[in-house]
Amino acid sequence: QVQLVESGGGLVQAGGSLRLSCAASGRTFSSYHMGWFRQAPGKEREFVATMSRTGKIAYPNSVKGRFTISRDNGKNTVYLQMNSLKPEDTAVYYCTAKIGASYTSSYYYEDEYDYWGQGAQVTVSS
Prior knowledge:
globular; mainly beta; 7-stranded mixed sheet
């Protein structure tokens, strides 16, 4: 079973930056399709970013140009760099992994993923 642990959350002012990290267990991390979702109070979980094992990346328009997903297979870690943060980015951010993903497919829905971290709180003040 894959275990995921997020870190790097906190409180920042609008316009600031924050980097989240997600450390994953497993000996085959390079084969995982990784993603980030977020959930604000009273709202459904929202897709934020995804990256395949071959480097295919996708973002929704709400974060495109501000957020960047990356991965370091040698460290079994995926990152989410968040710049130009807005108050509406405030949420709990979850790291997720899909096992046995296609080389070419992208995954945008939470029920497509297999494992989840506990979440990291990100709060953006105005």
